[in-house]
Amino acid sequence: DVQLQASGGGLVQAGGSLRLSCAASGFSFDDYGIAWFRQAPGKEREGVACISTTDGSTYYADSVKGRFTVSSDNAKNTVYLQMNNLKPEDTAVYFCAADRGGYLRTLIVVTSGLGGMDYWGKGTQVTVSS
């Protein structure tokens, strides 16, 4: 049974930090593209970051570049999203997703909003107070 489980969300003041985790079970992360998305109330889903589990290539949306860092631990089948200097506009439900098509396909989904990912986890709420 394939599952992705996101965790680590919470309430934090502006300027604070959180680290989200995305643990996979039922499949191996190897050669997958893994992405983080977020969706705030009344807004469309936004691709935040993605990573190649093959070579560690990463991409960040302009809105989070320099503040968020995505990393993977393939041995633990886990991807992390370190979020620093959080802003109220980062408030959203954060989702992790995986795609068998690999990093390039994942990058297309994250940057264009077109297409989908093979596996999605349940979201974790991040709330940043001002």
**Oligomeric form:** single chain
Low-confidence residue ranges: none
Structural class: mainly beta
**CA-CA gap between termini:** 40 Å
Instruction: Provide the residue-averaged pLDDT.
Output: 94
Structural features, described:
By secondary structure, the chain is mainly beta. The chain contains 1 helix and 11 strands; from the N terminus they run βββββββββαββ. It has one helix spanning 103-112, and strands at 3-7, 10-13, 18-25, 33-39, 46-52, 58-60, 68-73, 78-83, 92-99, 119-120, 124-129. Strands 2, 4, 5, 6, 9, 10 and 11 form a 7-stranded mixed sheet that branches. A 4-stranded antiparallel sheet has the order 1-3-8-7, with no helix packed on it.
